[in-house]
Design goal:
- The complex is a heterodimer of chains A (260) and B (379).
- Chain A has 260 residues and is an alpha/beta fold.
- Chain A has one domain: Rossmann fold.
- Helices cover 42% and strands 23% of the residues of chain A.
- Chain A has a 6-stranded mixed β-sheet with strand order 6-7-8-3-9-10, with helices on both faces. A 4-stranded antiparallel β-sheet of chain A has the order 2-1-4-5, covered by helices on one side.
- The longest helix of chain A is centred in the last third of the chain and has 18 residues.
- By secondary structure, chain B is of the alpha/beta class.
- In chain B, 71% of the residues lie in helices and 8% in strands.
- Chain B is built from 12 helices and 4 strands, in the order ββαβαβαααααααααα.
- Chain B has a 4-stranded mixed β-sheet with strand order 1-2-3-4, with helices on one face.
- In chain B, strand 1 and strand 2 form a beta hairpin.
- The longest helix of chain B is centred in the middle third of the chain and has 40 residues.
- Chain B starts with 7 loop residues before the first strand and ends with a helix.
- Classes of the chains: A alpha/beta (260), B alpha/beta (379).
- Chains A and B meet through helix 4 and helix 6 of A and helix 1, helix 2, helix 3 and helix 12 of B.
Chain lengths: 260, 379
């Protein structure tokens, strides 16, 4: 049981109209790992993520998350599964009419029957975990900076102590320092909470710093899967350009020096 | 996921309180654990030393960790030194994570005095009314300046945009306006005939229909419909452009948002309202005539000749003169409210509501002022 992947995707085909975006894609995510998914802009990363969490319909294939197949799940099983994952959307997707505290409490209020006191305490505890202070708790999303929005969104994704967290471009739009902090935060939380993290990213630094495995998505399928070394050795032209190109190459060199 | 064994059991032994935890200390059980933890905290009074054995716990998450932390904190503040034993290293990290949170008591925002807050709401409402008038005057001025500038350089007028808006605001509104005014005309005629019949004065129902529709009802119904239909869409459009910084982008490229976005919209409304009012009034007169024929037994020839006697060009002019001003008011209010939208979806909803309510209110106030004006000049 232990080695069973937490997310298992087999032969997935997804598209819009007459355009196929994901073409017979298969991918397994292991328990407790941080998986980084890279790919072209518009190459289907977000489509894959949204298909896994059931926001987009698939044409063909099978997706199992935590042993549940969403297609055959009853309404109840579905809800139970949705409690066991948290999603951080690219723009944060905070509810703009609720304060930060209420945003974090929202999943708790809907899914748990706990006292207001415990809910307040837990909301502040979650905010503390993502590096925010109680002062921020009564702000509205419109008053937050980009980095804070992402942190609040992460706190909300973690509200019910999920087993899997899906992150869509968690560091996009953040300055390098904030992005680095956010990476460190994800790594720490993964350690303390035993999370499995599925992360779409463009950020090479993130890939180096936190990801246990990297999946490269090109031409609608996974063309390379494994550690950074695997990526560097991969012969697929897009993967080569990505990791050996101007920006990737610079980083690779730097990381190489650090390792030496 | 089911918890096996009790979540928390307590036992006393020579003044020692020994607790044994078990099962799942996770979010789904948080409510039960909280109750047990509160009881355990109160139990301390009788014990000298206290320890909690976590060996039986199968699952542990932040909810469990916080409740355990809260319990030990309460014990410590009561003077005991609790011992937590039998906890795996991994869970201990999580517990340590919790030791820094909620050190200050959670302060929920203070509830203000209801009388004070009612007075404050009244005060800010009155101040808001004054501020609104200022905003509308400001918008009217900005539109005037933009109009003068465009008059000086007519090539800069956004003609394409204006045509597109005209299609949406005027042309596409025609069917619904015709339908509504037709029904209103029919209802007025029916009521007039029904009540005048008691005095044998059915013919005067035609006077009622003609004068009422041409002078007041035609233009008012159309203005209210347009405020609800196009005013709200102006506010929502401009508001979401504000939210996505499109208006700021225009400004940084050296364009004046009033000239590019607002002037064409308001001008189109000023043209559209007389057109729609004319069409609407005709539809209402037609509806009135149909009811007079079918319900009142008045042949169309009689209806038309009676109408000719009852109404004059003056009545028609009174209605039509008002229409462009109503259009201006609706446009100014809708655009001013649109530019007040802040970053949130809630604010967009609030401003759209405010736009429709305020423009309908102002349209009716304006109609009242016109009534006084026309009465005093004898029209």
């Amino acid at each position: 049981m232990k080695d069973k992947p937490v997310i298992s995707i087999k032969d997935l085909v997804v598209g819009f109209g007459d355009q196929t975006v994901l073409d017979h894609l298969s991918l397994d995510v292991r328990k407790g790992e941080i998986l980084g998914v890279v790919g072209k802009s518009g190459g289907g990363k977000s489509v894959l993520l949204r298909t896994i969490i059931g926001l987009l319909p698939k044409w063909h294939g099978k997706i199992e998350v935590l042993g549940t197949d969403l297609d055959n799940a009853t309404e109840q099983e579905r809800r139970a599964l949705e409690r066991r994952w948290g999603v951080l959307f690219q723009q944060g997707a905070l509810f703009s009419s609720l304060t930060v505290r209420q945003n974090v409490q929202f999943p708790m209020r809907e899914n748990l029957e706990i006292s207001q006191r415990l809910m307040d305490e837990m909301a502040l505890a979650k905010l503390d975990m993502v590096g925010l202070t109680p002062v921020d708790a009564d702000k509205y999303p419109a008053e937050l900076s980009g980095g804070m929005t992402k942190r609040v969104a992460l706190a909300r994704a973690l509200a019910l102590d999920p087993e899997i967290v899906f992150l869509d471009e968690p560091t996009s739009g953040l300055d390098p320092i904030a992005a680095g902090d956010f990476d460190a935060l994800i790594k720490t939380l993964q350690g303390t909470l035993g999370l499995t993290v599925y992360m779409n990213t463009h950020d090479l630094e993130s890939l180096y710093a936190v990801c246990d495995r990297i999946a490269a998505l090109a031409d609608g399928r996974i063309v390379a899967l494994g550690s950074m070394e695997t990526m560097l050795e991969c012969t697929h032209p897009w993967v080569q350009t990505y990791f050996q190109g101007k920006r990737g190459g610079m980083l690779t060199k730097r990381i190489g020096q650090l390792v030496d | 996921m089911a918890s096996d064994g009790a979540l928390l059991t307590a036992k006393f032994e020579d003044g020692r309180l020994e607790l044994a935890a078990g099962g799942s200390w996770t979010a789904p059980h948080a409510a039960e654990i909280e109750a047990l933890v509160d009881r355990a905290a109160a139990d301390l009074g009788r014990a000298k030393a206290v320890s909690i054995d976590m060996r039986g716990v199968r699952e542990f998450d932040t909810f469990g960790a916080w409740l355990l932390e809260r319990l030990t904190r309460q014990w410590r503040s009561a003077g005991a030194s609790p011992a937590v034993v039998g906890m795996p290293e991994h869970d201990r990290t999580l517990l340590k994570e919790m030791s820094g949170v909620n050190l200050e008591p959670v302060v929920s925002p203070a509830q203000p005095n209801p009388i004070v807050s009612a007075l404050a709401a009244l005060g800010s409402g009155v101040a808001g009314f004054g501020r609104d008038l200022g905003t509308f005057a400001n918008m009217l001025g900005a539109i005037g300046v933009a109009a003068v500038r465009v008059l000086a350089r007519p090539r800069e007028f956004r003609f394409t945009s204006a045509v597109n808006q005209f299609d949406r605001v005027c042309w596409q509104a025609v069917p619904i306006i015709l339908l509504i005014t037709f029904l209103i005309g029919a209802i007025i005629a029916q009521q007039g005939i029904f009540h005048f019949r008691k005095f044998g004065a059915e013919m005067y129902a035609v006077d009622l229909v003609g004068i009422l529709i041409l002078r007041e009802v035609g233009v008012l119904i159309v203005a209210i419909m347009v405020a609800g239909r196009s005013g709200s869409s102006y506010t929502a459009e401009l508001g979401s452009m504000m939210m996505r910084e499109e208006v700021d982008a225009l400004r940084t490229m050296g364009f004046d948002p009033v000239e590019v976005l607002i002037l064409p919209r308001v001008l189109v409304l000023i043209i559209a309202l007389p057109v729609l009012t004319f069409l609407g009034s005709m539809a209402a007169l037609y509806g009135g005539g149909l009811v007079a024929w079918l319900y009142g037994g008045m042949s169309p020839e009689i209806y038309i000749s009676r109408l000719e006697e009852a109404i004059s060009l003056t009545h028609f002019k009174v209605g039509m003169v008002k229409a462009p001003f109503m259009g201006l008011v609706i446009g100014v209010v809708a655009c001013a409210e649109g530019l007040l939208v802040k970053g949130s979806a809630e604010s967009l909803g609030l401003q759209t509501t405010a736009s429709v309510v305020k423009s309908i209110f102002l349209v009716i106030v304006l109609d009242g002022l016109f009534a006084i004006f026309f009465a005093s000049i004898g029209m």
